[in-house]
Amino acid sequence: MAYLTLERRQKKSKVPARLDVAQSLTGLVLGLFILGHILFVSAILLGPEVAYKVDKALEASFLDPEGHGYSYLVSLAAFTIATILIVHAGLGLRKFPASFRQYRIMQDQIENLNHDETRLWLMQVVTGFILFFFGSAHVFAMMLNPGQIDPYLAAERYFGHGMWLFYLILLWAVVVHAFIGLYRVLLKWGWLCGKPRQARRTLRVVQRVLTAFYLLVGTMSILYYVKLGYERADLPLQKYGQEIQGSSSSTHP
């Protein structure tokens, strides 16, 4: 009589998959936020007045009888983004090379296989490392100083304080990281239309075009702030809103 021994299969943990879902969702939220944030900042390209109105609209000035807005909303938004950023970074650390040996294996794969997806992943690792420091500093500064969001004050930071390089590095890191991330999320979870191979190529082209567009718009915004700061270098530092109030009070005695 033959006996058949059945080994009890161990149930595989669903935790890694759930962590991947959480990482994708938090990355998706951050990516969409970045898309909107850069466009809002680019309002300066239409002039300080437009940028000021956009800033005030984001502070819900239309709900304030005096029209000043509620700056604590900026702190609340920054706190929310900071929390999501920390969670996303923590989840992303799981896939960073944990040793020099792992790094060499990854580097050998890039060099020998000529694999674009691995190169994109490496770019995300590098830009993610930059964002951990630059992005966190920016978000926490906004959270602690919500009243400093103003076209003239921003121009002073960019030019007078020499922060233009900080924001330029932050811009390039966050745009590259965000669009590679959005591309990989759509690819990973199969959110593509049509034939997979063709859809993948199309998605890659869209990712590159949008990356170039946002880098161009963001860089132009930084240069405009530098120019504005240079033009106002010899003028007393004040908010754009204070200038408006001063001019209106002088015309209405």
Distance between the termini: 110 Å
Structural class: mainly alpha
CATH topology (fold) name = 3 helical TM bundles of succinate and fumarate reductases
By DSSP, the count of extended strands is 0
CATH architecture: Up-down Bundle
Shape: elongated
Biggest sheet features? none
In CATH, what is the homologous superfamily? Fumarate reductase/succinate dehydrogenase, transmembrane subunit
C-alpha Rg (nearest Å)? 23 Å
Low-confidence stretches: 1-7, 248-253
The multimeric state of the shown protein is: single chain
Overall tally of domains: 1
Tally of contiguous helical segments:
9
| Percent strand | under 5%
Roughly how much helix do the residues carry, as a percent range?
over 70%
Q: Could you walk me through the main structural features you see in this protein, from its secondary elements to its overall organization?
A:
It is found in: Membrane. Membrane-anchoring subunit of succinate dehydrogenase (SDH). Its main location: membrane. Its cofactor is heme. The protein has 253 residues and is mainly alpha-helical. The protein has one domain: Fumarate reductase/succinate dehydrogenase, transmembrane subunit (3 helical TM bundles of succinate and fumarate reductases), CATH 1.20.1300. Helices cover 73% and strands 0% of the residues. It has nine helices and no strands. Helix 1 packs across helix 3, helix 1 packs across helix 7 and helix 7 runs antiparallel to helix 8. The longest helix has 36 residues. It is elongated, with a radius of gyration of 23 Å.
